[in-house]
Amino acid sequence: MVVSAETLTCIDVADASAGRFGPRAAQVLDAWAEFRAWAAEAALDPAADGKPFALDELDAPSPEPRQTFAIGLNYQDHADESGLAYPETPPTFTKWVGSFAGPVGELRLPAETVDWEAELVVVIGARAEGVAAADAWSYVAGLTVGQDYSERTLQLSGPAPQFSLGKSYVGFAPQGPWLVTPDELADPTSLAIECRVNGETVQKSKTDRLIFSIPALIERLSAVLPLLPGDVIFTGTPAGVGGARKPPRFLHVGDVVETTIEGIGQLRQVCVASDSPRS
């Protein structure tokens, strides 16, 4: 899908390419280099030829990753508020694909300790194995906005914390609204990131404050296993999460969470009870 964000119209890539790319996003990401070359030459005009759509119709930009990586404690200020030492290697867990959602919709609250975590998300565009940080950007398909919603009670329960499980309830990994290629951003290494709850800013930072930069993460992860086209990396959250506040603050039914990253766009979730009818 090629989108005109101003008028919210899009061109279906599968139709425009006569079936060469798509219709599934994973099929496009598996052929990302070829798709980029085709798109650069194709006469695509979403404003003139596109079809209208609504943001709540969108899924995550890479809705079927073979692997999802999530990085903890990747901003110094978040480590500080958590009372933990700065990591020497990226703490890594996952968010299962069943938690993926599009940029706009409802967030069902399964418990009373659901927290917010604004994050920059990376989507991989080529198989990356043993990649040096200096070459890492060439393996990135694009960047998007993400939320790493977390149910803190489950996440921190038991003798071994359940990070992946506590962060993978349905709808706990919204992403979008677009996948933005790094060349479309003035400086993809330094983007303003912000989260607001009911209009109040609760997180505000810049992605140049990451402890492990995007290239460093790709280098370290790809030294362990191959990163595959369409794979998703949640890069970590800055300070301001609810669980670190005194007293702690968590999400309630009716809260509206808006997450924005400079040059990419915004997510918006409305919190509802876990037993609310699905819209």
Automatic annotation (TrEMBL):
<protein>
    <submittedName>
        <fullName>Fumarylacetoacetate hydrolase family protein</fullName>
    </submittedName>
</protein>
<keyword id="KW-0378">Hydrolase</keyword>
<dbReference type="InterPro" id="IPR011234">
    <property type="entry name" value="Fumarylacetoacetase-like_C"/>
</dbReference>
<comment type="similarity">
    <text>Belongs to the FAH family.</text>
</comment>
<dbReference type="GO" id="GO:0016787">
    <property type="term" value="F:hydrolase activity"/>
</dbReference>
<keyword id="KW-0479">Metal-binding</keyword>
<dbReference type="InterPro" id="IPR051121">
    <property type="entry name" value="FAH"/>
</dbReference>
<feature type="domain" description="Fumarylacetoacetase-like C-terminal">
    <location>
        <begin position="68"/>
        <end position="269"/>
    </location>
</feature>
<dbReference type="InterPro" id="IPR036663">
    <property type="entry name" value="Fumarylacetoacetase_C_sf"/>
</dbReference>
<dbReference type="Pfam" id="PF01557">
    <property type="entry name" value="FAA_hydrolase"/>
</dbReference>
